[in-house]
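Continuing the series of single-chain predictions for the mutant panel. This is the parent chain; the variants come on the following pages.
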Amino acid sequence: MADTGDAPSVKKPKIAIREGCLLGYGNPLLDISVQGNTEFLEKYDLKADNAILAEDKHKGMYDDMTETFDVEYVPGGATLNSIRIAQWLCGEPNATTYFGCINEDKYGKILCEKAKNDNVNFVYQKTDKEPTGTCAVIVTGTSRSLCANLAAANCFTEEHLDVEENWNLVEKAKYYYISGFPLTVCPSAILRIAKHSGEKGKTFTTNLSAPFLCQFFKDPMMQVMPYVDILFGNETEADTFAKEHDFGTTDRKEIAKKIAALPKDNKDKPRTVVITQGADPVIVVKDGEVTEYPVIPIKPKDILDTNGAGDAFVGGYLAQLVKGESEAKCVKCGNYAANLVIQRSGCTFPDVPDFE
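Parent structure:
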């Protein structure tokens, strides 16, 4: 097993970033972010450092948040966060494309405007059945609890891919990132994109995203798994996945190896598994080998908001992946993005990156 932060690697030729090279599909949400407290979490039966879907008991929470705390609105949703970060680091306008469903209401217009300002090509499916989705982000200290009301995001259908202009964008892309959350909405669209990626020898990436997905959406997740070239996840998600699949181990390096070894459609392209562990080293299994990469040290007092840290890591990783950079460079950029985001409120970033 290698243990490295700056391991020497074979120099890969850089790939010119092209418009539309990275495509994502996710649940576009407007984050309603507050600095909360444990009492508020208990009031709505929420847990710190967890992500769940809103139930009836949470419906009044969003108005309660705006009346109780100072609120910040940030465009969000796991995939959109990662795509925005990747776009920011790529630099090439419209290098990224994003699919999702919104209502053309106030919040939907904010999302579109923010995505455009970030140079993301947001090609949305419109619905009038539900309002644009929102996500409560309650930050307590260095922890955060997410409670998403998918609303319009839940209305996405595979028909969006049947539109010729939209499928042309899928065909144009060389890399794909879809977090695990859309498994609750339209797994058929995920599978269709994943199969296209495999058939064309492209790169499909996804994320375990939340423990409840590993538990309650195991079947659609495993239908997509054979087409997954790179899988991301954090420590709690990896632990839950291992338990659900009876791996018989709590050693995360072994868990990552077992996930990498799961059946794959393209056997000539071994699956890479990337597990983040907060302040502990990032575990990467690539070509059957385990490597650990230390994260960037940070003092607790400098951590403002952990919301979006995992999404930022993925975005940083993808930004280097589409450039043809080494695994070490991808992880290094992921750590850079995550370290930057946790020192800011929400998944936000400065105008210009200073990576390297």
